[in-house]
Amino acid sequence: MADQDSVGAELGTWIGQMPDGVDRDVEAARQRIGRISRQFGQVLARAATRHELTVGDWEALSVLHRAGPVCTPKQLAETLGLTAGTISLRIDRLIQAGLVEPVAAADGRSRPVRLTRKGRHRWRAATTARAAYEQEIFASALTEEQLALLNPLLATLLARFEQEFGPASRHDVTR
Question: From the first residue on, what is the mean pLDDT of each consecutive set of 10 residues in the chain (175 residues)?
């Protein structure tokens, strides 16, 4: 391995502390996948911050963009796995920032919202930046051929996990 990562640096010690029978390669893969997942969170945070958003705001705007044109607080809460109170605060903050606007609802108990032009622009800019950061990281670490080999392997692994635990969340949630 050209560059030793944090898992490679710690794996011998880590495995030495684990119960007998823990598979070194499975543990190394699990650790790497988990750490890479957390690093994607750093990419999201960087993109959000550079576009004057919190990660939570960016996630809410992403859900609103995909749900479009109108989304209820209940839909947001279910998609993001957050409480109604947290969603209410987030919506209020996004309305105050001019990124979403309330929409009249037939049911007075609901408070649907939609993206404003400013919200759509901010979401697009942050999402474009996130994708560019990820592209840069992938391109600097893997060749096109390596990436083409990696994706089917990850697809096979994800399919097996989903067979066991059901579909994984389709939305990046960092809470």
Answer: 77 88 92 93 95 94 92 92 93 97 80 95 96 96 96 95 90 53
Distance CA 111, CA 105 (A): 7
Q: Structural domain of residue 91, as residue ranges? A: 6-14+23-165
Tokens coding 101: 């606007």
Q: Would you say the pTM of this structure is higher than 0.85?
A: no
Which CATH number do you get for residue 71?
Answer: 1.10.10.10
Give the C-alpha separation, 114 to 104, whole Å: 11
pLDDT digits (tens, 9 = 90+) for 132-147: 999 999 999 999 999 9
How many domains does the structure of the chain reveal?
1
Kindly state whether residue 170 falls inside one of the protein's structural domains.
Answer: no
